[in-house]
Design a protein that fits this description.
single chain, 24% strand, alpha/beta, seven-stranded mixed beta sheet, Quinone Oxidoreductase, Chain A, domain 1, Rossmann fold, 383 residues
Amino acid sequence: MTKGRVDRGAWRSRVGRVLRWGVSAALVVLGVAFTVAYVRSGNVCDQGPLPTGPTPMAALVQCEYGGPDVLRMARIARPSPGPGEVLVRVRAASVNPVDWHQMRGVPRVMRLSTGLRKPSDIRVGVDFAGIVAAVGPGVHSLAVGDAVFGMRNGALAEYVVVPTTRVVRKPDGVSFEAAAAAPLAAITALQGLRDHGQVRRGQQVLVNGASGGVGTFAVQIARQLGATVTGVCSTRNVAMVKGLGAQRVIDYTRADVTRLPDRYDVIFDTVGNHALGAIRGVLAEGGRYVGIGGGTPHDAVWLGPLPRVLAMMLRSRVGSSTMTFFVTKANAADLDLVARWLSDGTLRTQIDRTLPFAQAAEAIRYLEQGRARGKVVVMMSAP
């Protein structure tokens, strides 16, 4: 046996020991984390009737994980703004996939941060638009009476307290309904294409899931960044996606994008329904794949996109193309940019339907079915 073979064998043995140790350590850490989360899990619902305080408000809440039936209207205490915060009377809110994930507590690994047995935060919703009702100490950028929109947990309520870093003025010509539909979906598309996809003028961009909440904004933002856009959607949404600016639309019921000869500089994937090897084959040399979803049905319940993310990291080490998964980061600068684009018509919100606040749980139920064309909005009663 040669020295080289001995060295390689010893190296593989050491790598094997390190990997086994790493997996064992990870399992121990995960076990401890789940144990701590289980012991600490619980919420205000465990303490009896929800406190209403001197100024109660209506809010959609969930005291446990499950289907839409766990969502209920309740009277809870109206929050007060602290330093750097404003209190907003909500006029409209929109629902996002994160809302039904939170409702069901899936993927289950998410419960390490949201509560293992029950959601630690019973509030529901993220996107809102409304009127500033009060300002906290140190707030000078906004005033009582300003029309605003932004992102904050607990948006499906009559009032929400939000830091000034997560809220901006609503343009005068934009309705509360349209403004509420934009924040999370538009910023996700913006950060995915501009920051992670690094889209440049003249590039070919593929948007998979072009008719959904994020996808409808992605088509428009990719065009604004100067790209030639191809959208993927079902037959009934082809005309809508073309109307949003896609130069070409692939009907996935008639063609598999991974089997077509076209290659793309950037793929923005909101669905994650193709094997990574197949979708990577559609990337041009040096191309970028940016994903925000995906995983098998089994993975989705337990680990969500984590296995897919790990596979993307490994594949990015081979060849010239890169594969990226990211989490949206709310910030006032991007909200301001979205506001300007809504104001000048660069962005249009595609709204599937609008429901009254009393049917907020139904809005989440409908979105979970995966058939929404654009956004689903919940309107509050006007003051």
